[in-house]
Amino acid sequence: MKRIILFLTILSIIIIIWSMNTISIETETNEARSTEVKKMVEREHKSVVKVGVKHPIGSIIDEYIKEEPLLEGSLAGISIRSSDTGELYYEHFGNTRFRPASNMKLLTGVAALSVLGQDYTFSTEILTDGNVVNNQLKGDLFIQGKGDPTLLREDFTNFARKIKQSGIERIDGNIIADDSWYDDVRLSRDITWDDEHWYYAAQISALTASPNDDYDAGSIIVTVTPQEVGKKPTVTVSPNTDYVQVINTARTVSKNQEEDLTFNRKHGTNIITIEGDIPVGSPGVKEWMAVWEPTKYALSLFTQALEEEGVSWTKNTKVGITSNEAKLLLKHDSMPLSELMVPYMKLSNNGHAEVFIKELGRNVHGKGSWEEGIEVLENVISEYGIDTDKFVIRDGSGLSHINMLVPNELSKLLYEIQDETWFSVYEKSLPVAGIPDRLIGGTLRYRMAGQSVQAKTGTISGVVTLSGYIDTNSGERLIFSIMLNNLLDEVDGIGVIDHILEIVEKNG
């Protein structure tokens, strides 16, 4: 009996000791959790205080956003930080996803310069698998494109002239256009049916052509000029090519009547229709139209140039693959990427953005596709500490309405890249506010005159964005990203952004 009582006493003591240790452990755990929560709250509070106390722009912008009727029912994402320290000065829905429109080009430009390098060029090669005998080429002639979006009509003329000068007057074989450097997917997956016939949504090919030195690859310029009242206006196409067919049912009307012309391209064809009225005295109307199948467009310009130089051929002109036995006859390189960045950013060239994406895929993974290129872009951007898991990226230009970026992450990227060796090229490519020269002011040439703003614009239906750098009246340089979504009229958003930046300039 005594043994039983002793056993029970010892057991009770053990239970009491175990209970005390458990309570101690739980207390320590709860205290640790409480301390961590307290630290998190203090960090959040410190961040808010830092923004509010140091920068009065916060309360001023907040008040403006609250009172601006044009923003009613819309979403505004704003991020402003120091360009020297990266410190976040102000944010409004800064961690929310927004459709970026052409602000997407900022990321694509970073990836292109980072991976390809500022000296990178895009080449076009002329090759043959035959030999020249008595001025006749016994074999096929190949024109192989490697992504150059800057080829002009005169470049094809120079190809033809050099071929003639090499002693070739007749080609006893085929003329073959090779665009296999990239895949054969012509349009990014979110292009809508009513965009695809316009130049800004032109098809992408490794072999293409541009109508002028804006380098809107895969497009032509259609010009309509009035004649006498009642007569059809004159229509010209540049470059001059029979690759497209124009059906003109428009008419010239009296001077006091309204100009009302409609341009279209029938899907799957190169038939361009022009309808409506143009008044006498009109200086003319120009439209940039995308062609169907830019590879064949480039091939058409090449064969036309050969004919003009007196070079004939016996077989077919077609799209195909360059023979493994083919030898290089001549090569043409584009301007370096450092120069191409200027029309790309300042004129917001969508085609260049998509070429950069496919070239990134080709360069890194050996496949020139949107999927491979976007993967490269995301990997590059993440190397700057940017959380790309917060993004949705569907193309390189921002034309897709599915793209989504985060203002705080974008302003952070613009801060992080400032130490790159190519940053001066990047910065120079950005539009400069209020400068009339198109290749300096770009898409900001008619905005914010007198303000020191360098930034990338963005506009699609219901969306206006602007991200870049601004110098304030106090002499500080700030980085900003402003994204307005769900606007009833995107044009109204331009003035809203400009006013916000006026607040930043005066109070930053």
Report on this structure:
- The protein has 508 residues and is of the alpha/beta class.
- The chain folds into three domains: 234 residues, 3-Layer(aba) Sandwich (Beta-lactamase); 103 residues, D-Ala-D-Ala carboxypeptidase C, peptidase S13 (D-tyrosyl-trna(Tyr) Deacylase, Chain: A); 71 residues, no CATH class.
- Helix content is 35%, strand content 22%.
- The chain has a five-stranded antiparallel sheet, sandwiched between helices.
- The longest helix has 53 residues.
- The radius of gyration is 31 Å and the shape is globular.
- The N terminus is likely disordered.
- InterPro entries: Beta-lactam/transpept-like (IPR012338), Peptidase_S13 (IPR000667).
- Keywords: Carboxypeptidase, Hydrolase, Protease.
- This is D-alanyl-D-alanine carboxypeptidase / D-alanyl-D-alanine-endopeptidase (Penicillin-binding protein 4).
- One of its GO terms (biological process) is peptidoglycan metabolic process.
- Belongs to the peptidase S13 family.
Summary keywords:
about 500 residues, alpha/beta, D-tyrosyl-trna(Tyr) Deacylase, Chain: A, 3 domains, five-stranded antiparallel β-sheet, five-stranded mixed β-sheet, 11 helices, 21 strands, globular
Secondary structure blueprint with pairings:
Blueprint (H helix, E strand, L loop, with lengths): L1 H53 L2 H11 L7 E8 L5 E5 L11 H12 L7 E6 L2 E3 L2 E3 L2 E5 L7 H13 L4 E2 L3 E4 L40 E7 L8 E5 L6 E4 L2 E3 L6 E6 L5 E9 L5 E6 L3 H15 L3 E2 L3 E3 L7 E7 L3 H10 L3 H16 L4 H13 L24 H10 L6 H7 L23 E8 L2 E9 L5 E9 L4 H18 L1
Helix pairs in contact: 2-11, 3-6, 3-7, 3-8, 4-5, 6-10, 7-8
